[in-house]
Amino acid sequence: MSGQQTPPGPPYPPTTAGLGGQATVSTDVPVCSVLLLFYIGSAVGNMFIFQANRRKGHKFVISAALFGFSMARILTLCLRIGVATHPHNVSLAIAANIFVNAGILVVYVVNLVLALRIIRARQPNLGWKQSVRILARVLYALVFVALVLVITFVVLSFYTLSESLKQACRDAQLAALTYLFVFTTVPFFILGLTYSLKPAQDAQTFGTGQMRTKGIIILISTCLCVLNSGFKTGANWESPRPISDPAWYQKKAAFYIFLFVVEIIILYFFIAMRIDRRFFVPNGSSKRKSFADLRLGTGHTGTTNSDKDSEKETGVV
């Protein structure tokens, strides 16, 4: 009997090299175990900050979102360990692939949310415009659409042997990944516009610390996210390679450094910079289109020259 034998499935095992290559017990289990400790620490830290602030009436939902992201990454690494110990389980590999692509989106959105707070404080007439609010919502919605596309076509690519359908899946994934890369760069443009203009006469403040420091924090975080997303997007745009001959960017070192290590740096950078203090805004600010703290009866959020005074006023841990 001649002809190429059809592989068992569906789902069918991949025939081209992917990011991180084939997980192995000797390499991936120790590396994932170490990374798990960092993500567990981030999850604990962010949840502690969120709960401590919540008990004092300071609801900083972003801390809870970063806790959720850390938990998602814990699951991602557990799945990676599962793939290493069960190398022939294609369904497990699909789940691991999906979570690798999905988790970091939380940080992309956080960067944009915080950048918008800066422009709304320094340039209220511009930052609170309805058109800006609509554009932000469209960008958020497209992130969700991109995520759905990535998940859908990643799964579909494992359930077909048709080369034309596989190419269509690849094209859809590339379109989604490219949009996500563009999305990560949006805070650059917001910060550039914000700090290229003089603060408006009705400029406000929020949280603790100087506005310039807030801008630097978002700039650093955005640079790291662009590095993360750019690596992932660029690697996927490269021509597919045989699974037996991966490129340098598809090997384990690049996979763990450009994705997971970069994410861990961002998470601990946010904790160290106490963004829950610096970027806190009073509840209902979006509805009022103002960061004024009504409890204080003033036109600002109660930020003083001393972080200590500001923490007392806002009830921050």
TrEMBL record:
It holds the Pfam family DUF3112. The chain crosses the membrane at residues 28-48, 60-82, 94-119, 139-162, 174-195, 216-233, 253-271. It comes from the Eukaryota. Keywords: Membrane, Transmembrane, Transmembrane helix. PANTHER family: INTEGRAL MEMBRANE PROTEIN (PTHR35184:SF1), YALI0C10208P (PTHR35184). This is G-protein coupled receptors family 3 profile domain-containing protein. It comes from Zasmidium cellare ATCC 36951.
